[in-house]
Amino acid sequence: MQSQTQKPLLNEVLRHENPFNSSDAMECSNYAAFIDKKLVAGDMLDQKPQALLDFIHDSFRSLVLNPQFSCVGAKSAIQQGGYRIGHYPALGDEKSTAGLAHDLFHFLQEQPSLDGEFSTFVATFSQPVIHSEQQFEQLLWQQLQQLHALDANLHAWDPAVSDDPENPHFAFSFAGQSFFVVGIHPAASRYTRRFAWPTLVFNLHAQFEKLRDDGRFERMQEVIRARERKLQGSINETLSEYGSMSDARQYAGRAVEETWRCPFSALNAKKSET
Asked: Who's near 67: CB < 8 A, 6+ residues apart?
């Protein structure tokens, strides 16, 4: 677990000014970390968090650390301190998007100071009340589209992945870094995707590539699927072998139709130099 003695390193890694610093971004920014067994907030992690964020954080930790929870990567991130969390007014809301963009960029800046093999940013939202998987799926892609719209003129898409959601090598990109996004919400059909607040979990894509390079990804996938079968009697139908179809089909957690088309479109405003 990360220790308070590492906090000076945070000053060293925040070398680049956060470009997502509009008045809406600063109003809705709500960034926090679990350090020395307590939640601390703010860009410098030196503030007391809002009571609601503290409450949601405890609930999220309880979900992931439950012995029956299937995703061992998420467990590792939570146990080793390689995660940050934020809370925002509404999923898909423009002001909330501004605050999320600020905090997600800050999370990427913090990477050198995070412990553990897995690194995750957890974005939770108060609203809306989610009544169906289709509603959440629509809002998830609306949220990612809005994040991308803020980012497109500032950063190129991560050249390691495709920006075409129909491509088998697609991954969402923000600030030049690719993510595998996991949506969880109260109406999810999969038990391990069910949580009281609509939530987007941003997992750095590079960590899964490292697992593949090390030959460990398949084993982790086997463990997750075995846990899913034990808990729910089946595996998540949206799971696929990497490279066989786009990961976009997995983000919202709904068992999408074979003819499903992702509603996301990359703007390509800034091209990669590589």
From this structure: none
Domains held by the chain: number: 1
- Max mean pLDDT range (2-6, 126-130, 215-219, 223-227): 126-130
- C-beta neighbour count of 3 within 10 angstroms: 10
Domain contains 272: no
- pLDDT greater than 60 at residue 241: no
**pLDDT tens digit string along 135-151?**
999 999 999 999 999 99
Closest CA relative to residue 149, chosen from 121, 126, 171, 172 = 172
**Which residues, at least 6 apart from 183, have a Cβ–Cβ distance to it below 8 Å?**
136, 137, 140, 193, 198, 199, 200, 201, 251, 252, 253
pTM above 0.85, yes or no: yes
Task: Specify the amino acid at residue 202.
Answer: F
Indicate whether 170 belongs to any domain: yes
Listed in sequence order, the residues at least 6 apart from 65 whose beta carbon sits closer than 8 Å to its beta carbon are 75, 78, 79
Q: 118 in a domain, yes or no?
A: yes
Least confident of 99-113, 116-130, 219-233: 219-233
Token representation of residue 14: 């925040």
Range of the domain at 228: 68-250
Residue 191 belongs to a domain: yes
